[in-house]
Every structure is written in C-alpha cells, then in structure tokens.
Amino acid sequence: MKNLGLLETVDCAKNALDKRTGGTVNGGVTLGQNLTISWGGKTATYHETGDVTGSIWGGTLCAWVHARANEAQSNAWQHADHVANGRATWDYVNTTFVRDIRLGHMQEIQIWRGTGYRDEPHYVITGVYNGNVDNYVDYIQRRLIQKNVNGEWINVWFM
C-alpha cells in the first residue's frame, strides 16, 4: 500500500465514520449528484432540485402534491352536486338558505291589571301603549319571527 501511494486513502476511509457513534455524521454532507437511499425494500432519490422520487409517491413528490391539490380543488368546486363551475346553483341556494323573514300575526294582551306575557321563544315585543293616557302602560303586543327556507315559513326559536 505504501509503495502504491494508497496509505493515506486507506487511513481516510478507515476513519470516515466513527464506529462509536454508530456511524452518525455530525455535520454537513455535500454530494456532487443525486442522493439515493434504500431501506426496507423502498428507495428514495433526493434530487438537486429539492424534489424526491420514490415508490411511495408513485413518482416525484412534487407531482404527487400537485395532483392532491388539484383533486381537492376539483372536489371543492363539485361539492355534492350543488355547485356548477364554482358557483352555487339557484336550486341549492333557495332550498338551503333563508330566503325571507317576516313577523307573524300580532297578539295583544292587557298588562295593567291583566295577565301580561311571559318570555317565550319565537316572539318579539312589537308594541307597548297606554290606551287611556294615564301613568301606566295598558297593552303589549307581540309577534312571531319567522324565516322562509325552501318555501316553508319556520318560527325562529332563538336569536
């Protein structure tokens, strides 16, 4: 070895990885070309572009991520057949969302020397008045709040 000039090369290779650390490299590694790593029957190649090729991706990681993003976007636009070309159909809007609101039939009751109203769901107070112009309120009026969804008027439970 000495006569061939390989002694220095053998010494460098012999101490390339420290066996006491299990061959762990502490520091940077520079390669002149792509890095291919195999383990457990799988192989991955790390390219100079930063992309990774491997059987787990069925090609390059970049192409796999791009395909998943396109699938997600396509699925979002075609959500449950309720949208067309990225816009909700009128049928979907009219059957899903509140189309209108209204106040229902008015109820009125005497509160001065009367029973009054308890706080009940669906109702809002729409009027309070003093019918005989003394110092006391005489009557109170209330109405249901209703919303129209899919052509049906539904009482609003809580606001």
Structural class: alpha+beta
Unreliable sequence segments: none
Cα Rg: 39 Å
The ordered string of helix (H) and strand (E) elements is: HEEEEHEEHEEEEE
Q: What is the strand tally? A: 11
Helix content: 10-25%
Mean pLDDT: 79
Major sheet: size, sense and barrel closure? 5 strands, antiparallel
CA-CA gap between termini: 91 Å
Please tell me about this protein's structure.
It is a single chain. By secondary structure, this protein is α+β, with helices and mostly antiparallel strands. The chain has a domain at 99-155. Helices cover 20% and strands 32% of the residues. The protein contains 3 helices and 11 strands. Strands 7, 8, 9, 10 and 11 form a 5-stranded antiparallel sheet that branches. The chain has a 4-stranded antiparallel sheet with strand order 1-2-3-4. A hairpin with a 2-residue loop joins strand 10 and strand 11 (152-155). The longest helix is centred in the middle third of the chain and has 17 residues, at 61-77. The model has no long low-confidence stretch (mean pLDDT 79).
SSE arrangement:
Blueprint (H helix, E strand, L loop, with lengths): L6 H8 L20 E5 L2 E5 L5 E3 L4 E2 H17 L5 E2 L2 E2 L1 H7 L1 E6 L3 E4 L12 E7 L9 E11 L2 E4 L4
Antiparallel strand pairs: 1-2, 2-3, 3-4, 5-6, 7-10, 8-10, 9-10, 10-11
